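Practice record 12: protein with adenosine-5'-triphosphate.
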Amino acid sequence: MSATSEPSPLHGASESDGALRAGLVGAAEQLLRAVRDLSSARTTDAIAQVVKRTARALVDADGATFVLRDRGHCYYLDEDAIAPLWKGQRFPAETCVSGWVMQRGEQVAMEDIYVDPRVPHAAYRPTFVKSLVMTPVRRADPIAAIGIYWAHPHRATPAELALLQDLADTTAVALENAEVYAELERRVAERTEQLTLVNQELEAFSYSVAHDLRSPLSAILGFAEIIEDRHPSLSSEQITSFSREIVSAGKRMNTLIGALLDFSRSARATLDKIEIDLSSQARAIAERLLAATSPRPLELVIAADMRARADGALFDVMLTNLLSNAIKYTGKKPHARVEVGQLQHPEHGHTFFVRDNGAGFDPAQSQRLFSPFQRLHSDREFIGSGIGLATVARIAKRHDGAVWAESTLGQGATFYFTLP
Ligand SMILES: Nc1ncnc2c1ncn2[C@@H]1O[C@H](COP(=O)(O)OP(=O)(O)OP(=O)(O)O)[C@@H](O)[C@H]1O
Ligand SMILES: [Mg+2]
């Protein structure tokens, strides 16, 4: 109501018992409606809507604000009033009445705001406000406040103060529920995103498994059928050559299946972290890999005394993949160089790296590398199945670490990883 209308039955003791009772019944109904509306409000904004409307009507005031505690500030989120107040504004907590209330968890009522030193008079002078009540939401540890204002001098009655505190207490529960609800929604969204990602990965995975296994399998079946038919024109040399093709295709399948098993194991295996001598392990892996490739000059530089804590088996898979890439993609360089080292990264902290001077890749594509079956080189250039780095990324993630890459096309690549 405004200054010109009759005071509410709740305002004074001068009313008759009947009018007071009627007023109380009306207030109780409004409060009940607010409880019902608040119980279904899922956001702070929706809560503010209910609160400002109910608070103002409950005590027949000229304005209501809903103020949030925002660290050291008071944020006037919403208002319902006969003229603008401070909606959308933020004030330091020490300079406003809502701040005083939220810092102490005490309700205040002021019949004349201009005699109270807690009121920042300059902020109130442009407004209609003469009297106010400010009520903390969640008394033990206030998270908000409800402001009520009158355009005429008004002394709030104990019944009004009690009603406003009841509304504030209900609001506190609603705000806590909204927070729980928002957290649940956030988690559902996060899980959905994870599931979508896993699903996409799985789709790409099964597609590529089917695709990549089929070509060696077709070769095996084709050559085996020819041999089985025993055509009279088939020479024994041809049979030997076809058998060799069958063995080589079988080996390719075996390698791919091995890589797939590593990939799926990297997701499921339980971590058994041990202290790892990264320097000697890197040397052992590199030598093992080099022994399996046709001999060529390759300068191997491994920093001394590198140590990490990781699962032994998974770490072996990770480093094997990075080093096998470095060796593979330097295959066409006359002076190949592979370096394993460590550094202090400004953002990631202690970081290891595997660097080579090989074919490199387009840096704009660097994120793709870590998804399964994404290859930046064709089989004609470098043979591979595109599962190695996806496995590396998974292993790093399982150790709460990260992996990323830098490169200049044609000038080599550096793969970084952390194992916190
Ligand atoms: N050291 C590197 N230099 C240049 N390109 C690289 C390097 N390491 C990886 N890549 C690029 O990233 C792609 C993905 O690497 P990843 O190790 O996952 O697969 P791959 O080496 O092709 O096959 P494999 O599954 O047998 O390891 C490669 O196909 C290649 O294009
Ligand atoms: Mg690889």
